[in-house]
Amino acid sequence: MAIFDTSHNPRKAYASMAVLLIGLLIFPFFAAQFGNSWVRIIDMALLYIMLALGLNIVVGFAGLLDLGYIAFFAVGAYVTGLLASPQFATLLESMIYEYPAVADALVAVLGPEIQQNGIHLSVWAIVPIAAILAGFFGALLGAPTLKLRGDYLAIVTLGFGEIIRIFMMNLNEPINFTNGPQGINMIDPIRVFGVNLAGEAGSRATVMLGDFAMPSVNAYYYLFLFLCVVIVFVTARLQHSRLGRAWVAIREDEIAAKAMGINTRNVKLLAFSMGASFGGVAGAMFAAFQGFVSPESFSLTESIAVLAMVVLGGIGHIPGVILGGALLASLPEVLRHVVEPLQQKLFGHVVIEAEVLRQLLYGLALVLMMLYRPAGLWPSPKHEDRPDHDSDTKDTSSDTVAA
Amino acid sequence: MSEQPTILNIAGVNKRFGGLQALTDVGITIKQGQIYGLIGPNGAGKTTFFNVITGLYQPDTGTFELAGKPYSPSAPHEVAKAGIARTFQNIRLFGEMTALENVMVGRHVRSKQGVFGAIFRHKAAREEEASIRTRAQELLDFVGIGKFANRTSKFLSYGDQRRLEIARALATDPQLLALDEPAAGMNATEKLALRELLIKIKQQGKTVLLIEHDVKMMMALCDRLMVLEYGKPIAEGLPAEIQSNKAVIDAYLGGSH
Hints:
The structure holds 2 protein chains of 2 kinds. By secondary structure, chain A is mainly α. Chain A has a domain of 266 residues. Helix content of chain A is 68%, strand content 4%. The longest helix of chain A is centred in the last third of the chain and has 30 residues. Chain B is globular and about 65 Å long. Chain B contains 10 helices and 10 strands. In chain B, a hairpin with a 2-residue loop joins β1 and β2. Chain B is an alpha/beta fold. The mean pLDDT of chain B is 92. In chain B, α3 packs across α5, α3 packs parallel to α6 and α5 crosses α6. Chain B has 2 domains: 167 residues, Rossmann fold; 80 residues, no CATH class. Helices cover 39% and strands 24% of the residues of chain B.
C-alpha cells in the first residue's frame, strides 16, 4: 500500500490517488469505444469489489472464515426487489386471503396505491434499509457461531448461506414474498436527483445530464464507483482504529485479545454486521442494475468466488482485495469475449468453451498462488526491518542495553 | 510494607477438572507495591490458579476482591477491565501487528471510540487515538524496546517479545500485573535484564504477581512467596521463611528422607 500510504509520504500518496481517480473517471468512456458490454462487465466487477471489501472485514480483519457471505448480498437484493418493484402488490394479493387483517392494516398504513403498484422506494431509502437489514442479519447469523473457529465456523456459515438461498426459493407460499424460483421482476432502475440511470423510456438506454448524453452503463459505473470509494474509505478508517485493531487482535490470538479486555463477542458481531451491511448495499445495487433477482444468483459458488477474490488479492489488505475482486470478476467475461472468437479464428470452431476454461484457469491460478504467493497477489506489507530504524547488529544487543 | 492497602484478596478457591482436584482451598493476599511470587513444582496448579484469577477458567468456589471491591472472574475481558492484566506462559502476541500496535490493543479497555468515531474521526476520536499512540510508545520505551515500535512483533527476538507482552499488559493500566513465567526460556543475561525491568515496574508503585521456576531469582526478587503443591498451598511468607520451611524442602527435594 506504499504508494497510497498517507502517513509516510502524504504528497506522493495524494498525487497517486488523484491520478488513479482521474483514470477511473475517464475509464468508462475509453471502454465504451469497444462496446457497452465492456462497461457492463466493469459495473459487475465493481459490485464484486464491494462484496469482497465487505467480506474482507469478516475474513481478513477479524479472521472469521465465512462461507455464506453471499446471503447478505441476497438480503440486499431481495429487499430492493420487494420495496422497489410491483412485487409488494403480489405479496398483498397472496396475503389478503390468508391474513386479511394484516393485509388491510398494511393497505391502511401505506395507502391503497400499493395494492395496484407495489412499493417504489427511492435509492436514498433503499441503500440504508438494505445496509441495516443485511447488517442485522449479519449479527443474527453471527451470534450462534461466536464460539466456533476455523473449519467449524466455515461449515456453519456455509449452512446459513444455503438456508437463506433456500428461504428465497420457497418464500412464495403461503405469502408470496419472493416469487420463489421465478424471482422478482421489473425492479425499478435507480434514480439519482430525478435522473434515471437506466435512461428514460424510449431513450435507448441513454442517460441525459442536461445536454450531455452517456450510456446507462456509464451512469451506473459512476454510482458504483462512488459507493466503492465510500466503502474503501470506511473500511480503511475502520482498519486504523481502535475497532480495527481489536478485530486483528482477535484474528491473531483470541485468548490474548480477551485477556487484554476486548469483549470478543461484541467485537465479532460488529465485524459480521459491518461486513454484511456492505454486502447488502452491493445486493441492492445489483437488483436495481439487473432489474431482476432470483435465488440462482446467490449460490454457494458465488460465496466461494467472493472469498477467492479476498484470498487471491491479499487477505486483510484493502488494495489487494480490490485487485483480487477486479481480476476474478472480470476474468470470466473477458474469457467469454476473447477466447471463443479467438478459437473460431484459429481452429474454425470452439475447442474449449469459455466457461470450462474459466474453471481451469481459476483452479490453476489458485494452485499457483498457494505455491508462489501464499499471502496473495498484493499482501499487506511486513515490517521485518525498517532501514531508518535499526539494523540487526543493534538488535542482538538490545536485551542487555535496553534494561 | 504491612501498612500498604490490600490489592488482591482471594480466598477459598476450588477448581476441579473431572476427577482431578486442581486447586484446593487456595487463597492469596497481596499488598500494594509488592512483588508476590507463586512457586511450586510442575503441575502444582500455579497456572490454573492464574487462569482462575484472570477469568479464563471458572472456579467452583471462591471469593475475589480487587482493591477492596469484589470482582467476578467470569470473563477475561471483565477482569482486565477491573484491573488485572496478565502475560502468558507461552508468549501470546498479535504476531502480524507491529510492536506499537500490540501495545495499542492494550489500551482498548481504557478507550471508547466506536464505529462512528472510527469513520468520521471527529476531534475526540483523533485526540483519543493520539493519546493511545503516545502512551503505547512510552510503554515501549519503558520496557526498553521503543526503537522496535514499527517492527512486526513476530520478528522480534524472544526476550523482546517477552518485554512486549509486559508492555501490552501495562497498557491496560492494571492494579495488578500478573506474569506467568516471564523468564521461561531466557538466558542468564536476559533474565538479569528482566529482573531489572520488574524492579523498575515495582518502583513505579505497581503490584506484581509472578509465577517463576527460577527459585534463586524469586528469592531475591519477591517480597512474599506462596508455594503450591498438588493444588494446595503448603507455605506462605517471606523468602527467608520459605527457604527454611520443611514442607517446601520436602516438596522440592522429595519427602521422607
